[in-house]
Write a structure and sequence with these properties.
Layout lengths: L1 E4 L7 H13 L3 E4 L7 H8 L4 E4 L6 H5 L6 E4 L9 H7 L2 E3 L6 H17 L1 H9 L16 E5 L3 H13 L2 E5 L5 H6 L2 E2 L2 H7 L2 E4 L13 H4 L7 E4 L8 H9 L5 E4 L20 E3 L8 H19 L9
Parallel strand pairs: 1-2, 1-3, 3-4, 4-5, 6-7, 6-9, 7-8, 9-10, 10-11, 11-12
């Protein structure tokens, strides 16, 4: 079978050789492109004879999927799949597997980096120190003792709960499917409105679905404490950004930190949150650590190996 990796996985050449070696060892061909392109015509040309495609967060439209006649399997080196046209895959009977879990620790750790940065004014303290000024006006707050509201208790939300417990936070959560293991950690499940109203910090760990799109709306933001922080390291569209910008301007909440937006960075000039001093922004880096990239490559190629053996893992479609 012919496998084509359509974009670089940001791993060293020796790691790529190690994780992909089984393909050629078993008589399969493997082509890896070291540049990322997003136009359909180029992707179709690169994929022409492929039976297996690999991507990270590169969008694969129905146009591309339908134009690759021999395509049987897509291994996505990413957790979310909203950049893949899954309906087109279902229509053609193409198997799609993802890499759930590769960045669980990475995302959870950045969420806490955001929390501490906001609570302790880390960015502002760096600026005033370089300007030869003092800590005046930047007396922070402890994370210990804060009520941490976790919206979504999947793998990342659970890891956040574990770390939050170690920091001494009071843990509450909202999820459609409460987990006994979360309750064993001391998490109290509440309705979303109650989580928003009671939390000192709200951290979002939701997939993007029709039900979660815009779930943090103007109405929901109004339920939060004026002293509360909002953290989003999940999916950008779960937050109504114009409503968040308004809430930050009006000091309805104290601050927000976001790693994800309605579109992938680079964001357009004049973006709604750029002029908000109480917003901390990152260009979608939560998943992006050296260790996580190696883990996702290992899982993505293991998905192919298992599929070739007839025992697929991490199968979504």
């Amino acid at each position: 079978m012919k496998t084509v990796l359509l974009e670089p996985l940001v791993i060293a050449p020796d790691v790529l050789e190690r994780v992909s070696g089984f393909l050629q060892d078993n008589g399969h061909s493997f082509t890896a492109y070291d540049t990322r392109v997003e136009d359909d015509d180029t992707l179709i040309e690169r994929s022409r004879d492929a039976e297996i495609l690999m991507v990270g967060n590169l969008p694969l439209s129905a146009n591309v999927i339908k134009a690759v006649p021999n395509l049987k399997m897509i291994s996505v080196a990413f957790t979310g799949l909203d950049h893949i046209d899954l309906d087109a895959c279902r229509e053609r009977g193409i198997t799609v597997c993802n890499c759930a879990g590769y960045s669980t620790d990475s995302v959870a750790e950045l969420a806490f980096g955001f929390m501490i940065s906001l609570l302790r004014f880390v960015v502002q303290c760096d600026h005033v120190t370089r300007e030869c000024k003092t800590r005046a006006g930047f007396i922070g707050k402890d994370l210990r003792g804060k009520t941490l509201g976790i919206v979504g208790t999947g793998a990342i939300g659970m890891r956040v709960a574990e770390i939050g417990k170690a920091f001494g936070c009071h843990l509450i959560a909202y999820s459609r499917t409460p987990k006994p293991e979360a309750e064993a950690l001391g998490v109290r499940y509440l309705e979303l409105d109650d989580v928003l109203a009671q939390s000192d910090i709200v951290t979002l760990h939701l997939p993007l679905t029709d039900a979660t799109r815009g779930i943090i709306s103007r109405e929901k933001l109004a339920r939060m404490k004026p002293s509360a922080l909002l953290i989003n390291t999940s999916r950008g569209p779960v937050v109504d950004i114009p409503a968040l910008a308004e809430a930050l301007d009006k000091k309805q909440i104290a601050a927000a930190a976001l790693d994800v937006f309605e579109t992938e960075p680079p964001l357009p000039e004049g973006y709604a949150l750029f002029d908000k001093e109480n917003a901390l922004l990152a260009p979608h880096v939560a998943f992006a650590t050296e260790e996580a990239f190696v883990r996702r490559a290992e899982i993505a190629f293991a998905n192919i190996e298992r599929w070739l053996e007839g025992t697929p893992q991490n199968k979504i479609v």
